[in-house]
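Feature request, filed as a ticket because there's no other form

It would be nice if the structure record came with a short human-readable summary line next to the tokens. Right now we just get the raw output. Example of a typical job, pasted below so the devs can see what we mean:
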Amino acid sequence: MVPVEFKSRVEVKRNPATRMTGYNTFNLPAGSWSDDTYLMLCTIESLLYGFDTDLMEQLFIRWLKEGFLTPWG
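Raw output as currently delivered:
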């Protein structure tokens, strides 16, 4: 979860994520997802057409250069 990414368990226990929040670790609006999610979505998209690593690579590059499958792209 983006709001608690890179925080220790102690920090999260002290201040748990109980609702959607924004502008925390990466200064993104509430409901945004992380780069881990973008890359997983690209992987899933490529696997819809079989195990094609060339397509997976192309989708990763689109993510990097165009913001493909990001909240703002």
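Something like this underneath would help us a lot:
The mean pLDDT is 87.
DSSP finds three helices and no strands in the chain.
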